[in-house]
Amino acid sequence: MKIEVLDSGFIEVIDHLGTDLTVVNSARVSFGKRQTVYEEGDRKLVRFLAKNKHYSPFRHMIIQFHIKAPEFVMRQWYKHVVGIETTNSSATKDHAWNELSGRYVPVKDFYKPLVWRQQSTDNKQGSGDNMPDDLNTECQKIFDNFMKNVEESYDNLLKIGVAKEQARTILPLNQYTEIYWTASFQAIMNFLELRTEKTAQWEIRQYAIALKKLVSEIYPETTDIWFQAHDWE
Ligand SMILES: Cc1cc2nc3c(=O)[nH]c(=O)nc-3n(C[C@H](O)[C@H](O)[C@H](O)COP(=O)(O)OP(=O)(O)OC[C@H]3O[C@@H](n4cnc5c(N)ncnc54)[C@H](O)[C@@H]3O)c2cc1C
Q: Does the beta carbon of 81 lie inside 6 Å of ligand 1?
């Protein structure tokens, strides 16, 4: 299961734990019960759990993703640190993050925006309308000149023998990076809530939309019920 995102990015499911029945059985253990077939009563139970913030049963469903995204998207993504345990040697509880290293692997891919957006006038961190065509062409020229210079300079530093870990200091935030991200259903829903809203940056929203499709394929009932219970589209 893999969805292409932006010009060279993707989200791929590597592994997952549980099914729609996992949340049901995690909740029903309170009554000493276990279901083997998903029934209408289970939908009601899951809706109740989601609506009333009984979220712990949703943390038994875990997905491991392989994600390729520009660095500026990843910088927003890695703010989602729920469950990280920093007080001892165990790195994470719920959420795990491992990233490709530009110290080992030379950077090859860079995100190229095709449509340039104007600064928003009512949201200091957001975008407004798209640039008119003539200015879009101008932005494209500025970008292409800059990237040609950057890529040539980076390659030249590597050719001279500069260490990859140092040569990368000249690279911009549109460089693609790759991670493995493992998170629970609840943590993914929190990500979707924050990163599908219209104030989230367009590029990370494209990843959130793809993520929702993948989660819906793995846990169709639970995702549908969660969205309905929270009045999300
Ligand atoms: C539109 C937008 C703009 C943003 N702008 C900025 C910005 O300008 N600068 C910036 O630094 N960040 C910014 N952020 C990042 C934001 O502040 C959050 O760090 C990020 O969205 C992760 O959200 P989260 O803490 O809910 O995620 P997670 O880490 O996944 O946490 C999930 C939930 O767990 C709970 N939780 C997590 N940690 C704790 C804790 N230590 N104690 C108690 N409860 C906890 C909270 O209920 C939290 O919602 C922005 C985010 C968005 C969506």
A: yes
How do beta strands 9-17 and 127-130 pair? unpaired
Residue 110 to residue 157: CA distance in whole angstroms: 18
CB-ligand 1 contact for 82 (6 Å cutoff): yes
Compute the C-alpha angle 179/201/166, nearest 5°: 45
Find out whether the beta carbon of 199 lies less than 6 Å from any atom of ligand 1. yes
Tens digits of per-residue pLDDT, 36-84?
999 999 999 999 999 999 999 999 999 999 999 999 999 999 888 775 4
The pTM assigned to this predicted structure is: 0.91
Measured CA to CA, the distance from residue 54 to residue 229 in angstroms comes to 12
pLDDT, tens digit, for every residue of 201-225? 999 999 999 999 999 999 999 999 9
Catalytic residue check, 195: yes
Written as six digits, the tokens of 148 are 């040609």
Look up residue 28 and give its two tokens: 């029903």
Ligand 1 pocket mutation pick from 189, 194, 202 by most atoms within 8 angstroms of CB: 194
* Mean pLDDT value across the chain: 92
Q: What is the 3-state secondary structure of 36-86?
A: CCCCHHHHHHHHHHHHCCCCHHHHHCEEEEEEEEEHHHHHHHCCCCCCECC
